[in-house]
Amino acid sequence: MAYDADVIVIGAGLAGLTATAELVDAGRKVILLDQEPEQSMGGQAFWSFGGLFFVDSPEQRRLRIKDSHGLALQDWMGTAAFDRPEDHWPRQWAEAYVDFAAGEKRAWLHGQGMRFFPVVGWAERGGYDATGHGNSVPRFHITWGTGPGVIAPFVRRVQAGVAGGLVQLKFRHRVTGLSRSAGDVDTVTGEVLEPSDVQRGKASSRVVAGAFEFRAQTVIVTSGGIGGNHELVRANWPERLGTPPERMVSGVPAHVDGRMLGIAEGAGARLINGDRMWHYTEGLHNWDPIWDNHGIRILPGPSSLWLDARGRRLPVPLFPGFDTLGTLEHIMRTGYDYTWFVLDQRIIGKEFALSGSEQNPDLTGKSVKDVIGRARADVPGPVKAFMDHGVDFVVEKDLGALVRGMNALTEEPLIDEADLRREIVARDREIPNPFTKDLQVTAIRGARRYLGDRLIRTAAPHRILDPKAGPLIAVRLNILTRKSLGGLETDLSARVLTEGGDPLAGVYAAGEAAGFGGGGVHGYRSLEGTFLGGCLFSGRAAGRAAAKAVG
Predict the structure, then answer these.
(1) Which residues contact 119 (CB under 8 A, 6 or more apart)?
(2) Which of the two ends of the chain, N or C, has the fewest CB atoms closer than 10 A to its terminal CB?
(3) Closest CA to 135 of 427, 534, 527
(4) Residue-level pLDDT at 492
């Protein structure tokens, strides 16, 4: 029986595009399958902020950030906290990825035309000791063009493969099985879904119009994770993170359903670290949604007062932007699945960024003029739209009205005005002096020692109840589903492994389906800016290894 291609790639997200582009460079024939229509090429990466993790980059050096391979590896390992026998390959992938991020990664991407915003962001600041979780220095590099700018070089390379007769694009092809016709896994079967012209991200039809069967020497699984499937998220929710939330908003479209992981497992692949997930605690209901239950994440600066559902401040060091999963664990043990930011217009204008390419038209559109306009605005346009239309926002001139608005948004009126006033006044009393016992205020002052934060990310310390800084703002924060940190176990050649530890002959995996490499390169936590890079690194490894295997 003849082969239809050298390699079949399942999933046209960033990892799949990267693997396909590498296969094209090697002269291999590829069939690229995806259950969504062609307008969704690029997958979740298209919607991203475009953050990339580099180590000792020119952007960092220009801002006098002293980074190094040793410091980055220390941060990665302290954050990952690998502690399981199955962390053997994830640990090796982590070491290889930090080498990549400190070495050729930036030059490789720059050579394909990608450029980066000059101010480096400081995500996941940790707040523990030197060997614990968090980035010791700013490492979050925003791609000029955000998510669309990240996928563009790889879309271009894949389309060149199509023009050259090396790539067949098969959209609306939903895989239902992997099987062997000889010794290796070489057959992919599934359903052809009816054509769909829905907007990117919208739910597409699941009406079956036919069936398919393709054969190739090698199959690469790049189908993504489970973030759009809340049932699977709850089924994998670990006890260490408390009770699964009753309500969540979706940071990814519904087609991110995890189906392909079960299909690969049925063919003999080993899934590991399914309980390791990355969900955000600062989710908003999108006032102008693209997909069902569409959530947007706030990328906050450090100044907002973070309160639980009853109005109590979250404990140290659970400040905005410091420890996502530590905060999630704390929240889920309070008995409620939401929290609050309380702040003022001065803080929101400087410190709120919203994740997503569509929420950052200046960066996505590569407009220097609009970036300057955003920096000069009292409140950036996308943020102002949420203040005006978002169901999670309360904006009032005085604290009493703010509390009434907060209580009107929840099933129970849990916020007591007198208690909240006492909390804010106590915090405000700490502001006049350069020294304080309030560690959040200390963190704010420390952040402003970094030029990037002082310029565009951290407001000068001031009293929240100062009328000149108003109006007052409260934001209800929801749990936002996003990434799977576990997945198909792979060796450093991206070969999928079986329960016995041997390669599943003919099968490779990359991207979120492989836990971004090895079945869990991040361990328990992420340093941020690492997901797109993980797709690029593991997709490149899978494409190059598969190209050699079929040579």
Answers:
(1) 59, 63, 142, 452, 455, 456, 457
(2) N
(3) 527
(4) 98
